Amino acid sequence: MAIAVKKLKSERFQGHKKWLTEVNYIGQLHHPNLVKLIGYCLEGENRLLVYEFMPKGSLENHLFKRGPQGPQSLSWEIRIKVAIGAARGLCFLHEAKPHVIYLDFKASNILLDAEFNAKISDHGPSKAAAAREYVTTGRVTTKNDVYSFGVLLLELLSGRRAINRTKVGTEQILVNWAKPYLGDKKQLFRIMDTNLKGQYPQKGAYTVATLALKCLSTEAKFRPKMGEVLVTLEQLVNPKMTHFVI
User: Fold this and answer.
1) Which positions fall inside the Protein kinase domain (predicted)?
2) Which residues are catalytic?
3) Which is the CATH superfamily of the domain at 54-237?
4) pTM higher than 0.90
5) Domain segments of the chain: what residues?
6) What confidence tens digit (pLDDT) does each residue in 159-200 have?
């Protein structure tokens, strides 16, 4: 069995007992869309986590990084498949008892198996949140993750990073650049990934765009729950889906 070993940086260390408690809890979280934690090693200052191996690597690599043959372009169907898988994983974490707030949800933490099934990795121990209301108020809720999921949807639509300093002006921040186009069917094409070469359903793209817009609401109370997000995504491939299954 192939495995992946992650060595934690010393600045992430916390109390020995607290770390073991968190790792043991994470090890009890089992879901098809979470990367399985197989075990850990704790010796002196070394802390290692052992996970199942994901052969296709991260979503980040496929969307943004260039390999020997150029960009690893993903079809529209695969992008939706990845979004659904990631949403299922987040739903499970949010519904767990006690629930888990991911806090660092991004493309580099979404790993893909041989069939491009998405699994969330590194779902603990806790990390700093980046959603807007955390920065301004320090409050942390599941709606932090919903905002981050909205950013991910924009990355899947546009093929652009959330922050890209090589761009000019408002284009440096994906949310600021894309938001004005998300609710406009006639202008949405302006943000769509050119690597898709127009091979995507306009209605489906607009559904994802408007969903992203809801997730990115400035006020957390106006963002949907991840269960609602998942239902919307599932309906793109199964119109009869009316409730989420995690």
Assistant:
1) 1-237
2) 104
3) Transferase(Phosphotransferase) domain 1 (1.10.510.10)
4) no
5) 54-237
6) 999 999 888 888 899 999 999 999 999 999 999 999 999 999
